[in-house]
């Protein structure tokens, strides 16, 4: 299902539904660390320490909290293996994988915005 802001403006889609969907997206990426975690997991399953190494300056406590939030939102799947010691892997769900499209748009906008802003400041 593809919905654009123009369809909402033209009355083809419900504004309340659009706002809820945007809020859902913001809730998923809310905070400093969720987008980097998702970005790291786009490259495949990772263990906790691998994620910690991939994301500079994140604390273990914050990584743990953010992974729980992402799991609660259906973005990350946590798998515990019955090994000694216990092995835990994190991976993106199908919804998490689809979030790559959002990150791509954010990247494109960020690069364009940075270029425009820096050019205006000169």
Automatic annotation (TrEMBL):
It comes from the Bacteria. One of its GO terms (molecular function) is DNA binding. The keyword Signal does not apply. SUPFAM superfamilies: Winged helix' DNA-binding domain (SSF46785). PROSITE patterns: HTH_HXLR. Transmembrane segments: none annotated. Keywords: DNA-binding, Transcription, Transcription regulation. Residues 14-118 form the HTH hxlR-type domain. This is DNA-binding transcriptional regulator, HxlR family. It comes from Mucilaginibacter gossypii.
């Amino acid at each position: 299902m593809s919905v654009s802001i123009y369809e909402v403006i033209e009355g083809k889609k419900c504004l309340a539904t659009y706002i809820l969907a945007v809020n859902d997206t913001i809730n998923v990426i809310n905070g400093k660390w969720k987008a980097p975690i998702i970005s790291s997991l786009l490259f495949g399953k990772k263990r906790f320490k691998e994620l910690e190494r991939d994301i500079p300056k994140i604390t273990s406590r914050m990584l743990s909290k953010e992974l729980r939030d992402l799991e609660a939102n259906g973005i990350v799947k946590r798998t515990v293996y019955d090994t000694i010691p216990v092995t835990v892997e994190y991976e993106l769900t199908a919804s998490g994988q689809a979030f790559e499209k959002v990150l791509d748009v954010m990247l494109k906008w960020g690069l364009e915005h940075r270029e425009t802003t820096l050019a205006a400041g000169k």
